[in-house]
Design a protein that fits this description.
about 75% helix
Amino acid sequence: MSASGVLLTDEDRSLLFKVSSLLEEILETLDILEDKDLMGSIREAEEDVKAGRVRSYEEFIEELKQSGEI
């Protein structure tokens, strides 16, 4: 402990917050990687993009409007 009685400096707190955030991101990534259905959907979406089976945001919104979903 320093003479001022401060255990953690502002810099220490900032670093701990960053480390905590990074660990949370890693855990979320691992959860996604373990989800076989989600990973299959991601692979399928990547294949769709490579094959050109995509539409613009505007086209997507128009499709939703026409279907009455928005």
